[in-house]
Amino acid sequence: MKTRITECLGIEYPIIQGGMAWVAEHNLAAAVSEAGGLGLIGAANAPAEWVRGEIRKVKEMTKKPFGVNVMLLSPYAAEVAKVIAEEGVKVVTTGAGNPEKYLSMWKEAGIKVIPVVASVALAKRMERSGADAVVAEGCESGGHIGELTTMTLVPQVADAVEIPVIGAGGVGDGRGMAAMFMLGAEAVQIGTRFVVAHESIVHENYKKKILSAKDIDSVVTGRATGHPVRTVRNKVTREYLKLEKEGASFEELESLTIGGLRKAVIDGDVDRGSVMAGQIAGLIHKEQSCREIIEELMTETTALFAGMGNSYGGSLSGKKSFEG
Q1: I need a surface site. Which of 12, 90, 161, 286 has the fewest CB within 10 A?
Q2: Hey, is 10 helix, strand or coil?
Q3: Cβ atoms of 199 and 319 closer than 8 Å
């Protein structure tokens, strides 16, 4: 399956693994890239030298392209941005901010830059700044989210920019992937399903929480503070929502979640930790290797398109290209 994204990034399949903090480290990134997708290291709030170490570990495990996701609000963002250029990483995705001040450095190093956006305005700005593509991420995603749903965001972004669009949020199988292409995307970014991959270092308690989730088990906290986060319901989310409803201070709410993601991912505390996952968790019921996940996604997606006809133009306007 060829799209402008597969050609731009030099990958076999139009599938990108989300750069999830504490989850997206070298084992997962290398496994996704080896299977034909694009694996990402999630830099999150990690120091630059940790990121350098992860990059070098991935290089030892695969010769295929991989990338790094940079959280621009991190106090180490500037140092991480420099390390990425020094280490010759092929792709950068960015979140939680505007990457414009790093673009010239990355472009000079031959790096493909793909910001994550939650609005048409930001997508257009990123295109003007020289981004190679954008990830249009809807609020169905796990972790920090925007307001628009994937169904409404992706087609509006696809209509607004000429660069390729990657759809994210609510993709867990071939039906979701096919839907992203119908909406105008040329690749998908998937997080939650890769969290439960065999190669994921996430604690088994975290994986079991996702695998046993029902359709209504996802909840958003932090709307009152302006920092909404989607997780799986547990004891701490119930406390948080109660305090949020009662008008608790930012400091009081923040005290409930500090270190929560590490607590869940590493320690396996799925009662007091932050079990970040998308709404698609209710559709995921098995643990597989990254290769099995990608092969299953591609088999399902191509079968759906084959059932619709022999060819598909990636958008109604015809400005995008898709070749199965």
Answers
A1: 286
A2: coil
A3: no
